[in-house]
Amino acid sequence: MALTKQTMISQDAALIGRATAIKLSHPHTVLGTPLNDDIPAGCDSLIVGMGCFWGAERLFWQQDGIYSTAVGYCGGFTPNPSYDEVCSGKTGHTEVVRIIFAPEIISLHQLLALFWENHNPTQGMKQGNDTGTQYRSAIYTNSDSQHTSSITSLKKYQQALADNKVMAAITTEIQAASTFYFAEEYHQQYLAKNPNGYCGLGGTGICLPPSLNT
């Protein structure tokens, strides 16, 4: 079967990539914090994919308790991929936002509620008009407790959909995080630099009820 942009590539067929990582030379455009792999004491991190990463990143940097956000690639096979390579569907990665947050100010449950409510997690290898494996819905966790909470929140949002007569199954991929690869510098905080740029966020219109967000 020929590979299409909606067919996940195998590891053997993925692009070879490169050993050199993308180096970012500027801090976060909005928050002023470093864009690197350091997680400050008292902070935690979560990686989510919810379609085009430009709008998703803005959603999270606007929240109280966010130390930093960065866009990048995760969930695939190709080391240090470029944007064009990810968009080809030949790396296995999806576009993601890495969120570094202070749990005492914004909880994991609050982040997951934002995740579920601001995209459509039932669309498989697409998000809105954006089609391809790089737009699939995903949560990449960094601990067993995060993984358990993410699975539980999926079940609760599936219940919320059903309660609103949306019977489509959630297709969100929930896995332990593999390597997060930073996207190119021009993608970082793209909508702060380009306020009229494209934002593909669009949810189902169904909220995760507070009674389920625990």
Describe, in plain words, how this protein is organized in 3D.
- The structure is a single chain.
- The chain is of the alpha+beta class.
- Helices cover 22% and strands 17% of the residues.
- It has five helices and eight strands; from the N terminus they run E-H-E-H-E-H-E-E-E-H-E-E-H.
- The chain has helices at residues 53-61, 83-87, 108-117, 144-163, 190-193, and strands at residues 44-49, 66-74, 94-101, 126-127, 130-131, 138-141, 173-176, 181-182.
- The strands form two sheets. The protein has a six-stranded mixed beta sheet with strand order 7-6-1-3-2-8, with helices on one face. The chain has a two-stranded antiparallel sheet with strand order 4-5.
- Strand 6 (138-141), helix 4 (144-163) and strand 7 (173-176) form a beta-alpha-beta unit.
- Helix 3 (108-117) packs across helix 4 (144-163).
- The radius of gyration is 16 Å and the shape is globular.
- The mean pLDDT is 95.
The span between the termini is 43 Å
Structural category is alpha+beta
The low-pLDDT segments are none
The Cα radius of gyration reads 16 Å
**Structure summary, number of beta strands:** 8
Strand order of the largest sheet: 7-6-1-3-2-8
Q: Which strand-content bin applies to the residues?
A: 15-25%
Order of helices and strands: EHEHEHEEEHEEH
Helix content: 10-25%
Described by the principal axes of the CA atoms, the overall outline is: globular
Nearest-integer average pLDDT: 95
- Number of discrete helical segments: 5
Sequence-ordered SSE layout with sheet pairings:
Layout: E1 44-49, H1 53-61, E2 66-74, H2 83-87, E3 94-101, H3 108-117, E4 126-127, E5 130-131, E6 138-141, H4 144-163, E7 173-176, E8 181-182, H5 190-193
Parallel strand pairs: 6-7
Antiparallel strand pairs: 1-3, 1-6, 2-3, 2-8, 4-5
Helix pairs in contact: 3-4
